[in-house]
Amino acid sequence: MSLHCHHDRGTPARVSTQKVTLTIDGAPVTVPVGTSVMHAAAEVGIDIPKLCATEHLEAFGSCRLCVVQVKDRRGFPASCTTLAEEGMEVSTESDALFRLRRGVMELYISDHPLDCLTCSANGNCELQDMAGRVGLREVRYVDGANHLAETADVSNPYFAYDPAKCIVCSRCVRACSDIQGTFALTTSERGFDSRITAAGGADFLSSECVSCGACVAACPTAALMEKSVIEQGQPQRSVTTTCAYCGVGCSLNAELQGEKLIRMVPDPNGGANHGHACVKGRFAWGYATHVDRITTPMIRLSIRDPWQPVSWEVAINHVAAEFKRLQGQYGAESIGSITSSRCSNEETYLVQKLTRAAFGVNNVDTCARVCHSPTGYGLKQTLGESAGTQDFDSVMQADVILLIGANPTDGHPVFGSRMKQRLRQGAKLIVADPRAIDLVDTPHVRAAHHLKLLPGTNVALINALAHVIVSEGLVDEYFVAERCEPQAFAKWRAFIADPRHAPEASAAVTGVPAVEVRAAARLYAGAGNGAIYYGLGVTEHSQGSTMVMGIANLAMATGNIGRPGVGVNPLRGQNNVQGSCDMGSFPHEFPGYRHVSDEITRKLFESAWGVPLSDEPGLRIPNMFDAALAGSFKGLYVQGEDIAQSDPNTQHVSAALESLECLVVQDIFLNETAKYAHVFLPGASFLEKDGTFTNAERRISRIRKVMRPLATYADWEATQMLSNALGYPMHYGHPSEIMDEIARLTPTFHGVSYARLDELGSIQWPCNEAHPDGTPTMHVDEFVRGKGRFMLTEYVATEERVNRRFPLLLTTGRILSQYNVGAQTRRTANTIWHPEDILELHPVDAEDRGVRDGDWVGVQSRAGDTVLRAKISPRMQPGVVYTTFHWPGSGANVVTTENSDWATNCPEYKVTAVQVARVEQPSAWQKEYAHFSEAQMALLKSEPEAGQFHAPA
Ligand code: SF4
Ligand code: SF4
Ligand code: SF4
Ligand code: FES
């Protein structure tokens, strides 16, 4: 690719302690065994012509352009498929080779449109380069049969396939199978008529293709090409940044013309993604410049008033005055903040600093509360650190993967593809999930066990797995004796050995047959390397924290922690949910998970920040809502988070928000929460600012500004202005200065700086004197807390139970093309794949209720009801229904209850008892929502009465 100077060595690098030495055009070269001649030649700067080979894929040997001669061998072997051998003497140039290559190129070019000058790949086409390389000037076969009249497939919203430009190198086919693992492409026919087809449909859109773009990146010509490049031309410059969607944290190169983003290309050097991406990060970035962006601050006195655009100065001074008034009138504790897992580490740090230092309270919480707070708590209790133990690459050394309550191919697609690569190499998979997720049975991957448990019974299942390990002598006694607290282990062993935890006893609760549980436990414990990956299907339960501890217990008991290939790995939801937790977003913790009551830490921050700090934990989000309804909490600053849509029990949240006197929302769109706001501060997208995100592997990566903020200021600048207006001075000139402060004050970040990030690409914390380059694997020689601590995990059934009125269990999840509350993805062409949230139900449950595919069904729980379109799905088990939550009007959280995790208040989104019935019209809530929403949109457009807010003279 022209923007990336890195030279493609044609075949993947090999790792081996055994080396061979050969000569290529007389130059000696030593390479690991298994290296191709082509790769070896590249090592000494010899660039053998090639078309079907790329270092990102295994060689295929189809184009025959890369032929070479080897001394004492007959013929002209292809250098991409010929392995280097000891003593080999290779020549890469001769008259014979020249003629052969030119012949190959003539054949290609004779069947290729000769429109290089106007082609979208002009200047970035390997076919064009190779024609030049072999000195091709004229083509002889132009009158023969060709494919030039074939029509392009433009069905995919983001890229097109033009068969006329296809040279059938099969790079796309290999990318789809080897990298993405979807196997959507095949080479149809043979010989001359051979072309690429997308399997399972008439075109790309209707096929099994998941629009990851790997084939487009692999294509050497303009046959597969981004529509944005076809329409706007080749990009001119490239800036490396990090995807702002999910916790995989893919490194992407933003390719631009000036400040105009032309395409996002996954970065081959990205530590998390190694050159791969998914449909969201790669293609769904158009929201960043969507017309719905609000770029001027706005104020109103009441939520029934029209919005009035004002200057930044007026808006900031108004918020400062209001917050001071509220604290004067109702007390210091009457205000607080919510940080964002979408914003950068630096921005999150600043919001909690503003709250603690400028507001003088600890009322700061984060949206991570509603997803992975039990991970933080559970892992801290057992292992001593609130984060996953591995890097993503670790999965390539796992022998058995236990996947619990996570759906990586939809929720964490790039990691899902990695996992599939490992499974295709032979690793075994155990899936514990109420629903048959894709990984249970995808091309070339079939789970060894699918433990189809009932929602809400995780802890009973993990205890049953542990029981088998303890009672069948599968404990790694050496590891436990060396690494774990002996008393805690003895207590746990006695607890878990009790017959009530036997799989036979818990089968009635979990619904999983005991033989399956026993077999799965033996498989996991007997593996060389057993790795556990889990998601929100673990945390979002009344026993979320218990389950996380149960997972850690299982890993410790089997010695599966502290080396590559094993570990306990939460798949984090949002791009910066790990970072927002690390940065001190919780009301009881300073950055680095240090309790506010800890004297030494507090003194450290007091002296750095120059103010006294409270030693009392502040309010959590649900407490803020309760206090608001009770009349003691009046002002809230929400940065980049849509609590009105994402928090449980929507009606309760709306009532709480409506009772506030000053709600300040900072976001790129007028989100659901902003419809209750008095002040709107326009946010900046990740393309408009510098900063860092921290992904699920604790990997800190840079985001880099590629365009100026549409609303003048990045979010951290607005927070800083507010702090100054409140009389607490902040004077950061650049986010790197904020990171320097974080590093100074947080032991796990001591070695982090923008200079180091530029040097290393990314850094996995802890990064400090002991680990100057970061820490891919944690707890290697000892646990962060010293000895690992087994915790007792008694199963307590959730209060949310089925009965005759609510006989079904509703659980929730994500879909690949949409993202969380959907504010971004709903504003892109991704809606083509998921235009609405649907309710999946088992055919039996559907038949019992006379529900057909596509019917509207009412979903009623004890908390509320909503209406969704039904999809009959054999993925479900009878008695369990499922929906996603990407569209606000779907009201998934109108139905979910107020139950939450006992330790962290993480809502129990995954278990709601419901009834489902056919209906003809939207629910009362949906009608009310539509009405309210419409009214709020009208207030955005209507002309306010002039002169309510003026800049101070
Ligand atoms: S579409 Fe591109 S990558 Fe695929 S076979 Fe054709 S030229 Fe090769
Ligand atoms: S976009 Fe991805 S899934 Fe679709 S055909 Fe290409 S490689 Fe396969
Ligand atoms: S896997 Fe996640 S981080 Fe990577 S491109 Fe997709 S959404 Fe972005
Ligand atoms: S590059 Fe070796 S055969 Fe195509």
Topology diagram in text:
Blueprint: E1 19-24, E2 27-32, H1 37-43, E3 69-70, E4 89-91, H2 95-110, H3 126-133, E5 159-161, H4 171-180, E6 185-188, E7 195-198, H5 214-218, E8 224-226, H6 227-232, E9 237-242, E10 251-257, E11 260-266, H7 279-283, E12 298-299, E13 308-309, H8 312-330, E14 335-339, H9 345-359, E15 364-366, H10 373-382, E16 400-404, H11 408-411, H12 413-424, E17 428-432, E18 441-442, E19 445-446, E20 449-451, H13 458-471, H14 477-483, H15 486-497, H16 503-510, H17 514-526, E21 530-534, H18 536-539, H19 544-557, E22 568-570, H20 577-582, E23 589-590, E24 594-595, H21 599-609, H22 621-630, E25 635-639, H23 643-646, H24 650-658, E26 662-667, E27 679-682, E28 691-694, E29 699-703, H25 715-725, H26 735-745, H27 754-760, E30 762-764, E31 808-812, E32 838-841, H28 843-848, E33 856-861, E34 865-872, E35 880-883, H29 892-895, E36 912-918, H30 924-941
Parallel strand pairs: 1-4, 14-15, 14-25, 16-17, 16-21, 17-20, 21-22, 25-26, 26-27, 31-35, 32-34
Antiparallel strand pairs: 1-2, 3-4, 5-8, 6-7, 9-10, 10-11, 12-13, 12-27, 18-19, 23-24, 28-29, 29-30, 31-36, 32-35, 33-34, 33-36
The structure holds iron/sulfur cluster (SF4) (3 copies) and FE2/S2 (inorganic) cluster.
Q: Which strands sit side by side, in order, in the main sheet? A: 13-12-27-26-25-14-15
The coarse silhouette is globular
- Portion of residues in beta strands equals 15-25%
Task: Spell out which ligands are present.
Answer: iron/sulfur cluster, FE2/S2 (inorganic) cluster
Q: What's the β-strand tally? A: 36
Radius of gyration over C-alpha positions, nearest whole angstrom: 29 Å
Helix content: 25-40%
Please give the alpha-carbon distance between the first and last residues.
56 Å
Unreliable residue stretches: none
Structural class comes to alpha/beta
